[in-house]
Amino acid sequence: MSAMNAKASSGGEEEASVMRSETLGESGCLGEVKRGRAILAAYLIATLELTFLFMQMGVMPYLAKSLGLDSVGFGYLQTTFGVLQLVGGPIFGRFADQFGAQAALILSCVSGSAFFLLMSTSTSIPLLFLSRLPAVFMHGLPGAQKVITDLTTPSQRTDALGKLGLCFGIGIIIGSALGGVLSTKFGIFVPVYVGLVGNLINIMIAVIWIPLQAKPMPDRRVMEHRASQSGSVFSIREILRLMKLPGVMEVFIVKVFAGLPIGLFLIMFSIISMDFFGLEAVESGYLMSYFGVLQMVVQGLVVGKLTNNCTERTLLRLSVFVFAGVGLGMALMRTVWHYCIIVVPLVFAFSMLGTITDSILTNTVPSSDTGTMLGICASVQPLTRTVGPTISGFLYRQFGVSSFGYLQLSVNIALFVYLLKSKIPLREMKS
């Protein structure tokens, strides 16, 4: 019997080896051209989706006001959006693992189309709240990350994921500017119509240029086996299983808490820019554009070079250390010019932390679970947007702007000491 088992095992290994060779041969034939085209398509989809998202963010306050929604109601509207994104992130990731990156991106784009369609028909407050529902599956950035994760090796992944920051910067700059211009010249619903049409275009891009299955064949078999065992896309048990893998919870805690204080600050930034810096709306827009340009420069010129020359452990510690320095600067700043200086290391730390932690976490979990892991990572910002308004409002009213800086400093010093003593990140999982 043991001989038969050994023979079967040997046969299975030979079959896997043959399939791996076929896959590599196919990848060589279709080659780097198709893989590069798929990655570029993922970047394009992410850029367009972020652009449309920032366009609607610019017009949403005016649309809500025109329907008679007050500031408290608008806060509830934003919280609804955050909760839906928070809940949908891990579910979207599980969907990507079970059905592939192409299906996940199509789902995101279809949800975006539904989002803008419902928004374009929002003639009352209940309809406006209803338009938020498709946001549960609007996760173009994690979908693009899934494509990149499937098509790159662990050594290439950090640099490739880092370039998605360029998409974010372009989305901020073009989306914010275009939304204002279109709504001013042609009406408040025109950016919404552009977002609707743009998401339909994204669907076509995903169908044409994103491969149906990006994983190699052996990984797909593992994926299908795990999918059959875990069952539903909504399985909480499978999501919790990933968090219990060695090193995952530790890195995820660093990811959440290192950027939490600055996330609280950014939630209050529109009020801080008016009350503390004394800026007009146009000047606040210029400041956001400056933030977007810095994001593009850092992600395009700095992050990639550092990831090619430094270890992930070093870069993780560096980003947390820089965050601590940013906290000290925020605690001492008094003018908008101080903030313009502080925002340079802030963007660096923010970009580096997000890129490095995403890379570490996707390398730590089995390749069949990278989508779920990316979905969990994507829930960090919605989590901040959900719980943040209450906490940030309290800090600002009771202790002022400096409280965000002192919180940032203390939290990141504690995390830096922890990282010096810990052995994370671990070596990547071999599945």
TrEMBL record:
| Gene Ontology molecular function terms on file | transmembrane transporter activity
Principal localization?
Answer: membrane
> Is Transmembrane included in the keywords of this UniProt record?
yes
Q: Per the database record, which ranges form the Major facilitator superfamily (MFS) profile domain?
A: 35-425
Q: Which UniProt keywords apply?
A: Cell membrane, Membrane, Transmembrane, Transmembrane helix
Superkingdom classification of source: Eukaryota
How does the record say this protein sits in the membrane?
Multi-pass membrane protein
Give GO cellular component annotations, separated by semicolons: apical plasma membrane; nuclear envelope
Query: Where is region (Disordered) located?
Result: 1-20
Q: What does the UniProt entry say about where the protein is found?
A: Apical cell membrane
- Is Membrane one of the keywords? yes
Q: InterPro entries given for it?
A: MFS (IPR011701), MFS_dom (IPR020846), MFS_trans_sf (IPR036259), Tet-R_TetA/multi-R_MdtG-like (IPR001958)
- State the Gene3D superfamilies in the record: MFS general substrate transporter like domains
TM ranges are: 40-63, 75-92, 99-119, 164-182, 188-212, 251-272, 284-303, 315-333, 339-361, 401-420
Role this protein plays: May act as a transporter of organic cations based on a proton efflux antiport mechanism. May play a role in the transport of chloroquine and quinidine-related compounds in kidney. Plays a role in the regulation of lipid metabolism.
Q: What is this protein called?
A: Organic cation transporter-like protein 2
The organism is Sula dactylatra
Task: Name the lineage.
Answer: Eukaryota, Metazoa, Chordata, Craniata, Vertebrata
